[in-house]
Amino acid sequence: MRKPCDTMGQQQNLFDDQQAEWELDAQQQRRVASIVIASGPDGAFDYDTPEGFCDAERPDRLLVPGKRVSVPFGRGNRLATGYCVAVETKSVDPSRLKPLARVLDAESLLSPAMLRLTRWMAEYYLCPWGQVLEAVVPAGVRSQAGTRQVKLLHVPPDVKARLGEIKLRSKQQAAALKKLATSDRPLTATELAKEARCTTGPVQQLLKHGLIEATAARVVNNPLDELIPDREQPLELNSDQQKALDATVAALDAGKSRGLLLHGVTGSGKTEVYLQAIEHVVSFGRQAIVLVPEISLTPQTVRRFRARFDSIAVLHSHLSNVERHLHWQKIARGEVQVIVGARSAVFAPTPHLGLIVIDEEHESTFKQDSAPRYQARDVAWQRATAEGIPLMLGSATPSLEAWQRAQDDPQFELLSLPKRVLDRPMPDVLNINLRDPGQAKFGKGGISRQLHQAMQVALRDQGQIILLLNRRGYSTHIQCPGCGFALKCKECEISLTYHRQHNAALCHYCDHEEPPPKVCPDCRSPAIRYSGQGTQKLEDEISSRFPQHTVVRMDTDSMRKHGSHEEVLSRFRAGEIDILLGTQMIAKGLDFPNVTLVGVVNADTALHLTDFRAAERTFQLVAQVAGRTGRGSKGGRVLVQTLQPEHPAIAAAARHDYLGFAAAELASREMLQYPPFGSMARIVVRGPDEEITRATAEQLADRVRKAARELEGATLAVRVLGPCPAPITKLRNEFRFHMQFQSATIEPIQLALRSATKSFRAPAKVRWIVDIDPWDMQ
Ligand code: ADP
Ligand code: ZN
Ligand code: ZN
Predict the structure, then answer these.
(1) What's the burial of 121, exposed, middle or buried (CB within 10 Å: 0-12/13-18/19+)?
(2) For residue range 756-770, what is the model confidence (pLDDT) as tens digits?
(3) Which of these, 424, 272, 279, 388, lies nearest to 262 by C-alpha position?
(4) What is the mean pLDDT of residues 393-413?
(5) Chain-centre distance of CA 209, in angstroms?
(6) 3-state secondary structure of 452
(7) Residue 308, by phi and psi: left (phi above 0), alpha (psi -120 to 50) or beta?
(8) H/E run at residue 153
(9) Cα four-point dihedral sign 718, 722, 728, 730
(10) 755 burial class (0-12, 13-18, 19+ CB within 10 angstroms)?
(11) Whose CA is nearest to atom 12 of ligand 1?
(12) CA-CA distance, 494 to 602, in Å (whole number)?
């Protein structure tokens, strides 16, 4: 990846006149640093390392890979921050390299293994290496948040000799010197002045005369303090869990990388397997990383980890920069046994990683939707391979990518937990066909007669209910039946959703809001209709159907405050809430034994997406929410309202039939060469002018087609689809066009895209992104 140095010849040459003779002798053994500019062009640039940064006796100034540096960059030699990715002693003409200006970090931020991982990401996701490095090292670590630079004073060993030469001017100086000499720790100037009961003046005088010395150090402002729940003992595993654990332990002991897909139905005790596998890891003094889809949605899982291990770091999105920095340092020192966190925890700087676990590996949150657009599952596998450790993926509804890999790839192994713990049955699932007039909705609203009755029964028997509706807001459409007008965002091609709380029509993509119209803005008809049920309207409906019961809504609107999930979930656990309704955030991972009924108000919401994964998402959502019931001795049932009960995804979810669903869906993916049978990438081009944006997209597509043709060998065929308007044609006043690339493997796509985009310059205001292995197809 190394590029020729862009700075050659710009360095001031003291020996200009003697250039011809000098050149022969100019070669010297120098330490040459490869520097990746943090927000600069891709690639590494060579710099000369001045003597001052080569002294092994001064580790804080010594340049080693993984430290950041300040370097003169570009024509104007402005100082830029870069990451040192390699240091090599070689024979060069130092006058042809610029010297680096400063070493910014006292300690390396990235181990050689992490540097290799970031480089892999840069190459795989076609993203500048510097951008990856900036994403991997948290901002709080880069700014050393929560620490401050202080000067610590101490008495030099030869103070006696020096005292002979210099006479102390005042009593205060003598007092200060004595205090420092007898102090059991170094002091700052302020501390010393305080102890010696003087101002800092005498202290400064002592410093000036060399009677005391100062060294720079960083001290931590406020230490971390975390709640530690009561200790819990490991549970006795059932035979399926034991088999899965044995296989995992065997993989751990083999000391090789290995992929383990733990497919366990909801409530089968996957978490217990992770916990005991990690105990094994920790007993050898190694660390484990556990990735969860979203920390705030999984307080129970986090609590279980805290109750099992002495030292765990929970990396959630509400950490301050200071906390993030302190965690990072503790992790890097090897003081943390288990790191639990979302996607980016895959970069935790553990010194002796033993295992990576990804819980609910099918979740979309493992894919980052801004650059670098990485999939944490694939980065984790890359890291596991490099460090020779197992990667465990757990899910009741594995992604088809993971599932297929477990069948095909000899490095992967499938571990199954086909039954729930304690022989609890899976809940009965009943599909309610909303097209069937016999199942007509009961009164106005979204709840069918059958679902209403099931709710009555559940509540009568003191059970709790979870209702899923994957659309937030009150009304999801505002339309005029007279002229066909539909209220859309002014800046996006998106229908506005009516939110009753703010009494506003909101765009869910750009936060644009406007007053809800009382008459049709087009034809002035007062008959304008607010239709389509969102969670707010459902909340009203349920409250009026069951006025004596407590109903709480959980969606991004009601859960804005930090800690509100935890609060609602603990009230639900305590039985203070009878009915919990919400979007997909209630579908995941919750384990409440008293939930005896789950209702899916509309299973079809995801099926309309123009996305090859629509069926998979629907299956996952329905199967996951169904798994929230029947977890206690009372059992449980699930009612799924749908307009398409015969749809294979919905029918299979009702049968708890992952295998059947996977087989059918994989067959159709294979036919179309969609992932996991082929690889895919996407480019999205956006800009304020529709025609210029379209033309740019077309140019890019032509370049990719040409580059693909130039690749050698027929097996490397890359299919280019598009460009065409993206499913969301306009967003925040920008038109969007996209194109899709497919091939048997990802490499030819990467090659073609790299060569097509290398020197591509889009017109002003037009931007484009490359997404490798895209998840979001909107
Ligand atoms: P999953 O992650 O597969 O949904 P969990 O690990 O959350 O399942 O387990 C579901 C419930 O079963 C938890 O309350 C857990 O404490 C309990 N459990 C797990 N394993 C066992 C076991 N071997 N014996 C008894 N209870 C268990
Ligand atoms: Zn109208
Ligand atoms: Zn908008």
Answers:
(1) buried
(2) 998 899 999 999 999
(3) 272
(4) 96
(5) 54
(6) helix
(7) alpha
(8) strand 147-154
(9) positive
(10) middle
(11) 269
(12) 21
